[in-house]
Amino acid sequence: MREVLLQAVISGIMFGLWPILMQRSGIQNVFVSTAVMEVFVLTTLLPLGIMNFRMSEFMKMDWFFTVSASVAAALGVLTFNDGLAKTTVSTVSTYFVFMMVVQVIVPASYHLFINGGFTSSKLLGFAFAGLAAYFLSK
Questions:
Q1: pTM of this prediction exceeds 0.85
Q2: What CA–CA distances, in Å, run from 23 to 42, 45, 85?
Q3: What gap in Å lies between CA 102 and CA 53, rounded to an integer?
Q4: Quick one: 93 exposed, middle or buried, by C-beta within 10 A (0-12, 13-18, 19+)?
Q5: What string of pLDDT tens digits covers the 138 residues of the chain?
Q6: Whole-angstrom Cα distance, residue 88 to residue 19?
Q7: What are phi and psi for residue 115, nearest 5 degrees?
Q8: Which long-range CB contacts under 8 A does 130-136 form with residues at least 24 apart?
Q9: Cα–Cα dist 131/25, whole Å
Q10: 3-state secondary structure string, the chain?
């Protein structure tokens, strides 16, 4: 479990740095910023995907969820990068904090839906997440 938590920390740092650095790049066109980012992502990850490819895993994959996840990611990156282009050095962190709170609410809601619904403590957690976004953006 400790390794997974370390990976979560490293991912959080990298995903935290990415929008700040992308906003500072000066690219104003969402399609250009997304294309540049995706080219670097693809050239980094494609060799790893090819080296670890297993036909058995490929054949068992649920294509509906695979394509749905890919479309959601593409739309999310495009929308996020477009918002980044509209922020300034002083507003990028507010934009990112607000997006992160929404991003946390989505899997938390899914978890509640799968595991039996809302409780008062969980509703309080959602309220605190909203308050955190508010105070962190001030």
A1: no
A2: 20, 23, 6
A3: 33
A4: middle
A5: 788 888 888 888 898 888 888 888 988 898 999 999 999 999 999 999 889 988 888 888 899 999 999 999 999 999 998 988 888 888 888 888 888 888 888 888 888 888 877 788 888 888 888 888 788 777
A6: 12
A7: -110, 20
A8: 130/101, 132/101, 133/97, 133/98, 133/100, 133/101, 136/94, 136/97
A9: 31
A10: CHHHHHHHHHHHHHHHHHHHHHHHCCCCCHHHHHHHHHHHHHHHHHHHHHHCCCHHHHHHCCHHHHHHHHHHHHHHHHHHHHHHHCCCCCCHHHHHHHHHHHHHHHHHHHHHHHCCCCCHHHHHHHHHHHHHHHHHCC
